[in-house]
Automatic annotation (TrEMBL):
Gene Ontology molecular-function annotations: tRNA (adenine(22)-N1)-methyltransferase activity
Listed name of the protein: tRNA (Adenine(22)-N(1))-methyltransferase
Keywords: Methyltransferase, Transferase
Organism name: Roseimaritima multifibrata
EC code(s) of this entry: 2.1.1.217
Lineage of the organism: Bacteria, Pseudomonadati, Planctomycetota, Planctomycetia, Pirellulales
Length: 216
């Protein structure tokens, strides 16, 4: 069984179903860990580059898994998987993948963007996927793991009416829990931005938003 880093361990804890698909598996260590632990019955790894596709084939050899060479969710049939993960990519790339073929997305998504998790939260709000949980994993960088569930309701109960922009930016569940590690990261970022002699408008807005959060 492969040893997962803290980031993928946190992702794996959110997954328990019959068929799980992972886009951009690289070496498919996540799927192998899930299969070995009995958290899933079948895995589907989807790659669009030859070497990662070969890596995943080697890792999953002999296991109940299918390794497909395809572009993102185009490698899935509608209703084929119970859940889907995309990890280790920038949010813009992840959102592009999710938007490609919405009908092929499973009802449950576990998303770990390397940057700008707010872009994924915004996509979910606009796409009827509710943010049912989010976790923080501290590794090489701090990582946000977002758990999304398709819903027929347009209003996501995770987001109270007040401060919607702050909630999308920092995450409603993280704001509510106020994990000391998360607060320490925000303090560190605020102090860094406050010491900069010049900031872009975007950086200034983020600094001011962090200050509001720290004062809550």
């Amino acid at each position: 069984m492969p040893r997962l880093d803290e980031r993928l361990k946190t992702v794996a804890k959110q997954i328990r179903c019959r068929v799980h698909a992972d886009i951009g598996s690289d070496h498919a260590y996540l799927l192998k860990a899930l299969l070995t632990a009995g958290r899933i019955e079948q895995g589907i790894a989807i790659e669009n580059k030859v070497q990662p596709w070969r890596n995943s084939q080697a890792t999953l050899a002999g296991l109940n898994a299918d390794v497909r060479f395809a572009e993102g969710v185009l490698g899935l049939r509608p209703g084929e998987a119970d859940s889907l993960s995309i990890c280790g990519m920038g949010a813009a790339t992840i959102v592009r993948i999710l938007q490609t073929a919405p009908a092929r997305l499973p009802d449950r998504l576990i998303i770990q963007p390397n940057r700008c998790p707010e872009d994924v939260r915004q996509w979910a709000l606009e796409s009827n996927f509710h943010l049912i949980d989010e976790q923080l994993a501290i590794g090489h960088w701090p990582y946000n793991i977002l758990v999304l569930q398709r819903s027929s309701e347009t209003s996501d109960p995770a987001y109270p009416n007040q401060n919607p922009e702050i909630q999308v930016l920092f995450g409603p569940h993280l704001l509510k829990r106020r994990d000391p590690r998360w607060l320490a990261l925000l303090n560190e970022e605020f102090n860094y931005l406050s010491k900069m002699p010049r900031l872009t408008k975007q950086a200034t807005d983020r600094r001011d938003a962090i200050q509001k959060v720290l004062k809550m």
